Amino acid sequence: MTSIQQAIRDTAARTSELLIQIAQTDYAPSALEQQKRRVVKLSEALDKLTAQIKSLDQDRGTALMGHQRYRDSIVRRLVYRAAWQHNRYQAKAASVTEEYYEVLQQGHKAKEKKCMLGRQCEDAVALLEDLEHVASQHNQAQAELGWLWESVFSRSASKYQQESALRQKVGSAQATHRLAQERCDESNHTVEALAGALSRIAAAFDEAKKALIQGQMSGDGAETRFLQKAQSQVDSAQHLLGQAKCDQESSGAIDGLRIASRSQKGSQWGGPYCKTIWRDRIRVSRKELEMCHAVLKRGLDMARVQQEEAELAVEVSDEALRVSKESLRMARAVIYLEVAGNEALSIARLEDISRGSSPIVEAPPPYLTA
Fold this sequence. Notes:
Number of strands: 0
Oligomer: single chain
Distance between the termini: 58 Å
Strand content: under 5%
Keywords: Coiled coil
């Protein structure tokens, strides 16, 4: 008996245990993601309801003041009676009272709904923690099975050629997936950098606009602070683009961009014409910022298209990797069944695996719905 066949027999029982454990917890990863989304939605709804209750409390306070004015003011009642407008007073008092009780009822209902939503959120969080534990067990079982089978089949290149071919296919799929993920991460970083640079250029444009208005209103020198803020925003945008692999047009549009500053005026610039030239320089800077913003906007649009393509490539490579791993798992399960037979008490469960179905297990715990 070859060493690999003996290794298969020695690890058959543990392999069967791990396969059954994986099948029993197979629901956990997808249920965990679903539950995470549910917890986020419940938390958002709870925050929204809390803000609504706060607004209703303010409305209730305002309505209560109006209600008390007509309920408790004897002078107001006498004034209306003296003007022969008692019926009008009664109608107004009834209106503000109805408004007060309506707001009061809305607040009460909102608070009851918040209590119910809070309980749902607590239950959802508790289930989330349970699913995280089960998903962790699932991942640990998969990792152990992968390590176990890799240690067994790493010496099977000559005897089990189909398994070796599938193992190479998995390796190729892993490399493709890793490359696609790297490109996706790079694309995400580029989009973030371009979006950040775009917002900073827009802020710099606003500061240059303020500088021009302030300079016309307050005279020479009043615009310096705004121009310094604009230059700071430009420097920050240049730093962001320097950290990302952006297209040449986006990088070139901002590389040589400098905002007009006081140092450009020179010591001999003191007359009214020089002030006009100085404002013209600010206008030129605003125009350059506007052009840079347009270039970065085009670059961001292109980067987002590339980001979508990169995310799609990750999804495709992830599915290809999943299918290749599943094929390898099936092939290895068949080999275990052929070699070990029924020597291990639970090895018969591998027959289900070899046919492409999971072992029969108990139903997973019910998922909490709305």
